[in-house]
Fold these 2 entries.
Entry 1:
Amino acid sequence: MTNRYRSVFDIIGPIMIGPSSSHTAGAVAIGHVANRLFHAPIKEVVVRYFESFAQTHRGHGTDYAIISGVLGFDPADRRVPLAVDLARRQGLKITFIEDQGLSPIGHPNTAAVTLINAEKEITVWGCSVGGGTIEIRKVDLNGLIFTPQGPLPILFVEANQPIGAALDQLFGENYRRPRVTHQLADHYIYQLDLLDRPFPEQIDQARGMSQDLTLL
Amino acid sequence: MYETIADLVTTATAQHQPISELIIAQEIKLSHSSREIIWATMGKNLDVMIAAAKKGSSGQGVQSATGLTGREAVLMAKYRAAGKTLSGDTMLRAVETAIATNEVNASMGIICATPTAGSAGTLPGVLSVLTERLDLTRNQQIQFLFCASAFGMIVANHAMIAGATGGCQAEVGSASAMGAAAAVEVAGGTPQQCAEAFAMAMSNLLGLVCDPVAGLVEIPCIKRNVVGSVNALTCADMALAGLTNKIPADEVISAMKRIGQDLPTSLRETGLGGLAATPTGIEMKMKIFGEDVSIHAEEGPDEGREN
């Protein structure tokens, strides 16, 4: 028993452009996570596919789906099938790699999406578990490695002072311990695996004590 | 959260509530949303389903970019209109709707995944028949979708709903079982009858493999949705008539999961086995992609891997 599907709309939905909920809509979602964690102009995208994704990405529209997510499109956006051309016209360098090995995060529908510009590079390892629902099991933010348990929602918070205790208090029983902290010279990055969608007021409060916050 | 179908049935029976109401209450609690918003969101999903079915079966219909599939829902509509059918107009309405929806999906049109895009035609196929036969209101159609989602969520959390992890039994098999259960609810059956219909529908499709030609979601996916819809309707009728599955629904889900894990990689959405590996299937793939694009992933044991 997992609890990765928690909403009726994980089962009836999403509304999307075909052809595959796992290989298309889920792939949009993985690309979108990368986009949201990068939040800066992108110069280059490298997508590495594993297992079923490596075998069927062309037929299932996974290429345009991931790039749609990177561009911030909704899964039902009419531009989804055109995303690779649109992105290349915007000057993005895009590479797709079919990895012959098994998924490093243990799921046949795995993509590792790397976003690069002159200042930074991030990689998101996501898997599409079916029906458009995804998990994020590894994130590399400029060399800092996070390994969330997978199911969303996942919260990333950056602060220039330690706020771990405050986050514990704020989210109480609504996250799977332990939280992950990376301490850098001048700031801290926290990653929390949340159990349920947090209340908007909780996110507002967390944002108030941080420099940067991303709720996936 | 409701963790088993037995749990859903027991609670619904004790509270004299339909299963759809239990899942709506759970959704309100977990999403911090109001009933009105949740109901309206499901209504939008219904609108997308209706629009897709209409698009696929009217005018010239739709064709996929590869040209491999399309315009067959229109052929079915004409055949129905001529009136000389073997399985009767009701059943063929489900057939037409299921094909139309998945043709729209294959042509990169807008659909609602139920529970997946590859199986998006199954529930609409069932619902189109019920709407006509039982004269369902819009609210009853939305109720059908909530009930289906309650059953689907248990399958998704206990087993899988992706072809890559469980084969087509996890997609069309799950959709068909969800549709059977929800059909019983809107037809006035008991929660236990919903569970029986579910168990029969899923049992009937156990072992169904995912072998898409050229790695597309066209052949055989589109017509497998027909099987899903028709199976759902007949299983709902069996349950309403008092027939039972003998193996409980939760155990059928566990069996589906184990079968999915036992399926070789070639039959789990890799486009390497089954119909995809027939001479014609391979020729189609070569024609579309201009080369043999298959790579051969190492076959590894699935132990310790999640679904």
Note: DSSP finds 13 helices and one strand in chain B.
Entry 2:
Amino acid sequence: MPRTTTLECSGCPPFRALTFDALGLIKVVEARHKNRQLPQVVERWGDPQSSKCVTAVSIIDRNSHPLLAVARTNNQIEILCPVNGDTHATISDANDLDEDNNIIGLHLFAKQNLELTSRHCSLLTCTTKGTASIRSIEFDDTSSETSCIGSSETWNVCSGGNISCCKVDRNEKFALFGGKGVEINIWDLDNTTKIWNSKPPPKDSLGIFTPTWFTSATFLMKDDHRKFVAGTNNHQVRLYDISAQRRPVFSFDFRETPIKALAEDVDGYSIYVGNGSGDMASIDIRTGKLLGCFSGKCSGSIRSIVRHPELPVIASCGLDSYLRLWDTKTRQLLSAVFLKQHIMHVLFDSNFVLEGTDKEQTTTEFKVSKEVEASPLKRKKSSKNKEHMLDGRERKKISRQSKERRMSEAQEIEGKTHGLGRKLKLVTQK
Amino acid sequence: MGGKRKKSDEWGNDDVEAEEASSKKKTRVKEQLLPSMIKNKEKRSEVHAKLKHQKRLVKRAKAKSRDAALKRALELGEEPPEKKVPRTLENTRELDETVCKPDDDELFAGNDADEFSSILNQQQTPKILITTCRFHSTRGPAFISELLSVIPNAHYFKRGTYNLKKIVEYAKKKDFTSIIVVHTNRREPDSLLIIAVPDGPTAHFKLSKLVLRKDIKNHGTPTSHKPELVLNNFTTRLGHRIGRLIQSLFPQDPEFKGRRVVTFHNQRDFIFFRHHRYIFETKEVKKAESKGKKNKDGKSEIVPEQKTIARLQECGPRFTLKLISLQHGTFDTKGGEYEWVHKPEMDTSRRRFFL
């Protein structure tokens, strides 16, 4: 008998993810069964067309009237319903944008229009050349063609260079922009003023200066816009703190190919890094220590990493046309779905509810089971988490918030993250 | 020790065969025949020879009975017994979901959208730039001159001291469609870089087993006709892409008059390159009949009046390629994104192939 080794995939908890690929297709991947079956592609929206390659996506992930915005290379922005794929509105910028000036950043504001109707949304776009704009859009449910742009505000983020990353923090008050030849800028979105600008690290001992080229960035914590992590083209991951200094507080190298994707964890200190040759790792950013690599024969550049808001699951996708789902704790591959095209982005739809089951129940069940599975490893952290689980949610929330506050305070005082981890530990022990 | 271990394994197999012959014999054989246990070398080799002889006898008997069964079936006009297919690495290959299927509409849509579609749809004629690494000598230039004769519309440019990114820029300006870089190490070509030019992928191959034309016996000299192209076994999505990359090096309208054929044959992720000239010859009927008699088949074979056979003459170089990486975009080792890189952790099974 031939000895064949098959990768043991333990299956996934129920989830729903949307993937966006190079031909402009949107594919919906779902794992439906509670007893951990393999996820499958359940729907495909759009026609394959190379000019409709997806460049940026954004989702408002809420229970009622969720919205999804997709920017494509032909400079169209589509606003869709992530549940059934209906197009609410199409905005075309084709007249004022040329071929190599694509929309690279896109953000749908979720919090601003809570009180407004479902037929209204506002979004931030940013192009490669650095034109950022906020516009609010009203659309009718009946006809998808007509969309009127209410107010729009346009400003220039940079004078030269190419923007390649654009992120908005969770409170949607600040946005950061960075790219090739563009140091990271942070803008206050309320009155569109630049509040902070990073400074390149000094020349090294040989007097060599590496040109600025940011490829990805992410805000570190939920309610704090001051700390963020950025990945550069010369495989550096840098931690910046606005309140401390303009140069990176801390930076380290990761492998040999450019960092292509960064994602933060909900705990506020561990980040996930993906690079151009398909290596992925999770890193404790307080100390810069590598927590572990995600190894699973991933061979193509990773374009996007997304953390599920509730489940301990992250999804990664990229040029090897696989959507891979990983467990954040054990760093094992849960499953991989082959999607045939180069995938540009992936998003989780966390409001996916199975028929006949309570979502809360399943998630908590999965969490608990994961805890049990992870417990043989016996890490300090996991046991701590477990305590929190037992104590109840409220306390957890409070403790986390206080922890974060303490962390930020400590960082302000210390200025350097190197000592911060140790300090923080002391504080928490007290 | 390793060698001994292997031998004993062989004997284990033999035991299974001997089992069919006679169980009595087997017990006797078994207590005697563990050559690894015999310490006297003379004795050991004697036992070994004996066993080997027995094994050959069994094999011969088996073949004879198989032939007899076939013959009888033919005489009786029955269905001949099924031919056994040997189990190879290829046909016990690990299941791969990325293997292209002919009914996949997304595959064709992807093909239409990729970088090679304009060449493969004959909207653009391929124009190839061939260059070398910085330092090269002896076999390198000889190999390049043969590549120039294989690939039509290929132009050799001296590398000079230009860096590769500059060469890519130049090729973009001059409307080249691909760049081939032959890298030599110790005066021996050892890797090949194929860059599809405006924005296509960059494939890095390891090149081995290079035999130049002059070292091939009875080689022919190729004509300047456009060759036909044979691409074998590029099955997966990655293989498909590599196949298209190779296809885009050659003109899509072969001149069949030239009877030149260039083959890229993929087997177990190694791509074998061969270059042949073929000719169709008609053979006389008489010869075929006499041949049949000589063989004493006794088959009632209907021999056609005139038999056409194809003869091949090898010309041009012969080499083997193995994919190391496929990079998205043109050559950029520092900031490049890879579509596929060979990593050592992929080699955990001998039955897993990527092309």
Note: The interface with chain A takes residues 87, 92, 94, 97-98, 104-107, 109-110, 112-113, 237, 328, 334-343, 345-346, 348-349, 351 of chain B (CB under 8 Å).
